[in-house]
Amino acid sequence: MRALLSIAFICSSGFAGAVELANSNNGRQALEEQGCLGCHNFQVRPRSDAPGVLSKRRLSATRLAAAIWSHAPTIWHAREQRSFTVLSAPQAYDLVAWFMAAGYFEQQGSVRKGGILFEAEGCLKCHAVIGKPAASPDNAGPPLSSWNTVTDPVPFLKAIWSHAPVMRAAMDRKQMNWPSLSSQEMGDILAYAGAVAGRPKDPELVLGDPEKGKAILRMRECASCHNGKLLVGSEPRDHTLTELSATLWDHAPMMMNFPPSLNGSEISNLLAFLWQSGYFEMPGNAVHGKAVFEEKSCALCHQASKQNTPFPGREGFDAARMIAALWSHPPQVIEQARGKGIVWPRFDAVEMADLIAYIRNGNASRWQIEPR
Questions:
Q1: C-alpha distances in angstroms, 54 versus 16, 41, 102, 108?
Q2: Residues 50-64: pLDDT tens digits?
Q3: On the CB side of 157, how many CA atoms lie within 13 Å of its CA?
Q4: Among the three residues 245, 267, 282, which one is the final residue of a domain in this structure?
Q5: Quick one: CA torsion of 255, 256, 259, 260, rounded to 10 degrees?
Q6: 88, 173, 288, 360: which could form a disulfide with 354 (CB 3.0–4.6 Å)?
Q7: Are 278 and 338 within one domain?
Q8: Predicted confidence (pLDDT) per residue in 309-337, tens digit
Q9: Does 223 share its domain with 139?
Q10: What angle do CA 172, 247, 353 make, to 5 degrees?
C-alpha cells in the first residue's frame, strides 16, 4: 500500500466519449425530475464510519431494484398530486450510475484502520501527512492532502493503471515489497485519504462505449492471460469499484509488461463493458427466478403469449432495466392488481437477482445493452 495513492495526485478527471451507457450527472437530474428528493434526502454517501453516515448497508443495482419495486405503492401514493413521468431505460442506467458514484454500492471503510494501515505499511516513507513528514523527503511522493480524487472512480482507476509501473520501479529501487490489499483494506485506505484530503461534493461516473471497452481487453497483453476461466465478464459477480481498485492494485506485480497507458475515456469504456458484462451485478438463478415469477403473482398478468410484457428471454435485461420496467406499472396497474386480489409483491435482493436471471434467460448475448 506504501505508494498507492500517489497516483491520485497525477490523474485528471476529464474525458470525452462519443457514446455513453450511463452518466451519473443525468442520474441526479432523474432523481429530481421523478420527485424522489421530495421524500428522500439522497446525498453523496461517506465511505467511512464517521458520524452522520446515511446508511451502513451496502446497496447494489440489484438491491436498489428490489427496494424500488417493493416501494412502488408508496411511490405512486406520494406522486398522486403529480403528473406521471415515465422513466426510460437510459435514465434508469443514469440513476444507477449516480448511486454507484455516490458511494451507495461500496462497503464503508474505517478511517481509524486506514490511518493505522497507512503507517504500518510504510506509506509515510514517501507520502507526508499533516504533522508527519515523509521519511524520505529527497524522493517524496505527493502529500496525502493532495489526494482529493481517490474516490472519483474514473480518475482513480486511470491512475492505478497508468502509474503503477512507475510506482513499482520506485519501490524496487527502495527494496520495498509490493503489498497485497484486500478490498476492505483498500476501502479503509480510501476512507482515511478521503477524510484527510476531502471528497468531491459530486463525484462523477460516466460509462462510455462497452464495445470499445471490450476491445481494450482484447489487446495482446490482456488476452494472453484473460481467457478461459480468467475471461472477464463471463457472468455476474456483484463486485464493487473498491474491489476493482484492489484487484488492479494486486494485479500490478503479475503484469510483466503493462498494456499501454489508458486515458479517462478508455477507462470509462472499460467500466461500461464490465457493467454490461455483469461484473457489478448480483448473480441469480433462473430456475429459482421462475418460482419467484409465479409466487409473486407476476404470471397472472405477464404471460409469454402477451405482447409488451416482460417474459423469459428478454435480451440484455438487468437491474437497471428492471427499475425502468416499474414505470410501466403506474398506479392504475396497481389498482387493477388489487381488483384481481393480487397483493403488490415485495422482493429481497436474492429474489430480485433470480427474477432478473429468469427474465433474461435463454439469450446467448444475454448482457448486450444498447448505449445511447
A1: 33, 9, 12, 11
A2: 433 344 567 899 999
A3: 26
A4: 282
A5: 130
A6: 288
A7: no
A8: 445 446 678 999 999 988 877 777 777 77
A9: yes
A10: 180
Q: Look up the domain containing 148 and give its range.
A: 1-74+86-282
Q: What is the model's pLDDT at position 70?
A: 92
333 Cβ partners below 8 Å, 6+ apart?
none
The predicted model gives 174-195 an average pLDDT of: 87
Q: With bands split at pLDDT 50, 70 and 90, how would you rate the model's confidence at 264?
A: confident
Answer yes or no: do 296 and 157 share one domain: no
Residue 8 pLDDT exceeds 60: no
Q: Is the pLDDT of residue 7 over 80?
A: no
Does 297 have pLDDT greater than 50? Answer: yes
Domain presence at residue 118: yes
User: pTM of the predicted model, to two decimals?
Assistant: 0.81
Q: Are 270 and 152 found together in one domain?
A: yes
3-state SS string for the chain: CCCCCHHHHHCCCCCCCCCCCEEHHHHHHHHHHCCHHHCCCCCCCCCCCCCCCCCCCCCCHHHHHHHHHHCHHHHHHHCCCCCCCCCCHHHHHHHHHHHHHCCCCCCCCCHHHHHHHHHHCCHHHCCCECCECCCCHHHCCCCHHHCCCCCCHHHHHHHHHHHHHHHHHHHHHCCCCCCCCCHHHHHHHHHHHHHHHCCCCCCCCEECCHHHHHHHHCCHHHHCCCCHHHCCCCCCCCCCHHHHHHHHHHHHHHCCCCCCCCCHHHHHHHHHHHHHCCCCCCCCCHHHHHHHHHHCCHHHCCCCCCCCCCCCCCCCCCHHHHHHHHCCCCHHHHHHHHHCCCCCCCCCHHHHHHHHHHHHCCCCCCCCCCCC
| Beta carbons of 4 and 189 less than 8 angstroms apart | yes
Q: Which backbone phi and psi does 330 adopt, to 5 degrees?
A: -70, 180
CA 101/CA 267 separation, integer angstroms? 15
